[in-house]
Amino acid sequence: MFSSNSWTKCLICLIFITSGNSECPKPQVEGNQHVVLTNDALLKNDFSEGSEATFECANGYVKDQGSESITCTSGEWSTLELTCKKKDCGAPMEMPHLTYEFDKEGTLFGASARAFCDKGYQIQGSSYRQCYATGWSGRSRCEVVTCEEPIDIMNGVISKNHGKQFPEYGDVIQYSCDEGYTLIGNKSIECNEDGEYNSFFPECKDVNDIPLKPTTISTTSASITTTWTVPTIQVSGTHHGIGEHDTNTATISGRYHGIGEHDINAATSKIIQVIIILSL
C-alpha cells in the first residue's frame, strides 16, 4: 500500500505534468478592429504551452508600434502590443491645371478627393478619387476646352486662326472681306470657356447691296406742310418769322478704307444741301 507521502508526491507530479502541457484557446482580437490574425495563425487549431500567435494590421492600416506576436503561458495569452494606424495615400500626383478638394479625412485611407480644373479646362477621367489600401483610385487630368472649327465665309477669309483646326479656349479668330465687300458683324470672335464662340460668325456683303436707312423730314408753316425723304441725315433749322429763314445743310459721312472695310461715320462728304425758304 502507498503511504500518504507517496500519494502526495504523485498528486504533485500530476499537477506539474498537467500544468506543463496546458493549451491556450484560439486567440481572439478584442477592442482592436484594425488588427487581425495572420493566415498561419488562423489555420492553426492547437496552441500549446509556449507557442506563439502572430497578428498583422487590417487592410488599409499600417503598423504604428508594438510587437506582432503573443505567447501562450499557463493556458493564457500574453497581451498584444501591436497598434495600427490608417495608411496615408499622400497627395495625388500633380497635373497641369488640376487641383483637388479633400474631405475631412484628408489623404488617409478611406478619404475621397474631388478634382477641379482651371477656367477653360475640363476633367478627363475621374471626377472623384478614393484612397484605398493600394493608393488613389482612378486617374484625373485636365484638357483645354475647344470650339468648333471656324467656318469659311463667302467673299471673305480668315485672317488669323492660330494654325489650329479647332481653336482652344482664349483663341481669337479674325475675319476680313474681299475688295468691294464690307464686314457685317464682329471682325474678331473668341473661343469661350464653355466651348462656344462669344459672337456669331460675321458676313461679307457687297457695298452696293447695303441700303441707307431713309429718314422723313417735315416742316410746317401755317397750313402748308412740306415733306422730303432723304438718306439718313440730320437736319436742324428754325423758322423765325415772316421773311426770316435758315439754311439747313445735311451731311452724310463715309470713307472707303481698303479691301472690304467701310466706316459710315468716319470722313464727311457733302452730298445734299436742302434750302428751305418759308414765307407767308
Question: Any chance you could write out the topology, listing elements then pairs?
Answer:
Elements: H1 4-20, E1 23-24, E2 35-37, H2 39-43, E3 47-48, E4 52-57, E5 61-65, E6 69-73, E7 76-77, E8 83-86, E9 98-102, E10 112-117, E11 121-125, E12 128-132, E13 135-136, E14 140-144, E15 156-160, E16 172-177, E17 181-184, E18 188-190, E19 203-206, E20 214-221, E21 224-231, E22 247-258, E23 261-275
Write structural notes for this entry.
- With 280 residues, the protein is mainly β.
- It folds into four domains: 83 residues, Complement Module, domain 1; 47 residues, no CATH class; 52 residues, Ribbon (Complement Module, domain 1), CATH 2.10.70.10; 62 residues, no CATH class.
- Helices cover 8% and strands 44% of the residues.
- The protein is built from two helices and 23 strands.
- The strands form nine sheets. It has a four-stranded antiparallel beta sheet.
- The radius of gyration is 47 Å and the shape is rod-shaped.
- The C terminus is likely disordered.
- It comes from Hucho hucho (huchen).
- This is Sushi domain-containing protein.
- It holds the Pfam family Sushi.
What's the architecture of the largest domain in CATH terms?
Ribbon
Oligomer: single chain
Strand content: 35-45%
Give the overall silhouette.
Answer: rod-shaped
Domains, number = 4
- Structural class by helix and strand composition: mainly beta
- Average pLDDT over all residues: 76
Helical content (DSSP H or I, runs of 4+): under 10%
Named CATH topology of the largest domain: Complement Module, domain 1
State the major sheet.
4 strands, antiparallel
Please give the alpha-carbon distance between the first and last residues.
Answer: 171 Å
What's the CATH superfamily of the largest domain, by name?
Complement Module, domain 1
Radius of gyration: 47 Å
The helix/strand order is: HEEHEEEEEEEEEEEEEEEEEEEEE
What is the strand tally?
Answer: 23
InterPro entries: Compl-Cell_Adhes-Reg, Sushi/SCR/CCP_sf, Sushi_SCR_CCP_dom
Domain Sushi: 22-86, 87-144, 145-206
Keywords: Disulfide bond, Glycoprotein, Repeat, Signal, Sushi
Disulfide bonds: 57-84, 177-204
